[in-house]
Amino acid sequence: MKLTFIGADHEVTGSCHYIEAGGKHMLVDYGMEQGQNLFENAELPVAAAEIDYVFLTHAHIDHSGLLPLLAQKGFRGRIYATVATAELVDIMLRDSAHIQMFEAEWRNRKGRRQKDTPEYVPLYTMEDADLAIKLLTQVEYGEIVEVAEGIRVRFTDVGHLLGSAAIEIWLTEEGITRKIVFSGDIGNMNQPILKDPAVIDEADYCVIESTYGDRLHPVQKYDYVSELTEVIQRTFDRGGNVVIPSFAVGRTQELLYFIREIKARELISGHGDFPVYVDSPLAVEATQIFNKNSLNCFDEEAMELIRKGVNPISFHGLKLAITPEESRAINFDETPKVIISAAGMCDAGRIRHHLKHNLWRDECTILFVGYQAVGTLGRVLVEGADEVKLFGEEIGVRAEIRQMTGLSGHADKNGLLNWMRGFKKKPEQVFVVHGEDKVTEIFAQSLRDEFGVEAYAPFSGTRYDLLRGIFEYEAKAMPAAKRKKAQKTVNTVFGRLLVAGERLMALIHRAEHWANKDIARFADQISSLCDKWEK
């Protein structure tokens, strides 16, 4: 019964934890790293084909984004997620695959104009994403699911994103049961649309995030509507656009919630029924999924609007840009407008085109409404860059750069501590992950000082024996090597053969407990196949 830390250790993104228990191999999340990569992640201890289950806390790409790669490498187990998470992952992994393939096509087209440039291979394809999506198994909040003998799981709402959950896992081995809880990303209190995080009674071990583990949100209830009104009014009065880089899933829907109220209360003067563009096919699909899951996930305030016949995330003047042509047309309309576009950290997507058209205009405002990871264009702009490069062109930054600091999908230090206080039985050991390097250590110390619990911030590769309650291996910081801009050319056909071989070996290991006659028949079939190709 072992826990190994793989990703989002002393880093904010790339969440992944590996569990081995009862002869099964499991992952909690398998996310993509975003922004600057400070430390090398340990490899998975087993081949992808040997992974039996993935338990997914929520749909954000830094928690789910490498599932297609896992499937590409031979994973054929089950991915357990809440209903809403499964529906969001369906669209988000396809969107991620599209971005991967588009970037590869663009790099290779550019590379063909240069001598001896190696082919850039996408991390994964749409086919890989489709395969991962087919492996999803939907579960309801609060339902205890026995996934295998000695392994039970339950998903509990933590209010970070539609469908987000803390995951309770009961593991039984050698007649002894241990319970480990993975917090996932814990939501902020009193946020629009979603319920506040629910707490969990007890656990032997807890793995908790620490994104904002060193800071506090404003004490008073933040007036998002007033701040957004002020930004829109001032920008429109000087003839500019309000451009909002926003995460397509979660943050965009919150913004629509606020703008609906601004319009309903007629808080913007002199600009009529101003247009609001959502320029993201992913955001449009995600909004539909939010509406579909309102009964299970929305808080009482949002449900009260629904009972009155009001859609809390829609309004007159809302325009949806789906096609590239519709997206391009937005920047040829001189009417002051609000443009909400992905990606939220400006590292990809249509938002980069809107920045190119609006950053140099001093009458415009670029309004950031979410966390900006180190190394992203969003972080560069927030930190005051005078000039940035977009599509090979240097763009002067003359627009007003603003940040809504109160708007956060993550609990702050007190929110995280309050969630921990929900345990009636304190965990024997708490592991602090999913935070910037120094923040993980600061929050681990806070847990020791203020909560009186053993807390440790592991580096990737650290291994813990859950049965005996001891560290088997404590990894040290391994600085990440600089990555090359282009991936090496790979023989994808031979790569498929290697993956097939790993799947075969994983199946052979599982065959140990089959009936003898089935093992014998399987062995004969493999031998026959070898005889055929050896000829």
| Helix vs. strand class | alpha/beta
Strand order of the largest sheet: 6-5-4-3-2-1-22-23
Number of domains: 3
CATH architecture of the largest domain: 4-Layer Sandwich
Given as residue ranges, the uncertain stretches (5+ residues, pLDDT < 50) are 482-491
Number of helices: 16
Percent range for helical residues? 25-40%
Strand residue percentage: 15-25%
Number of strands: 23
- Report the radius of gyration as a whole number of Å: 24 Å
| CATH superfamily placement of the largest domain | Ribonuclease Z/Hydroxyacylglutathione hydrolase-like
Q: Report the principal-axis shape.
A: globular
- What is the fold named in CATH at topology level of the largest domain? Metallo-beta-lactamase, Chain A
Largest sheet features: 8 strands, mixed
Q: At the first level of CATH, what is the class of the largest domain?
A: Alpha Beta
The averaged pLDDT comes out at: 92
Q: Give the N-to-C terminal Cα separation.
A: 45 Å
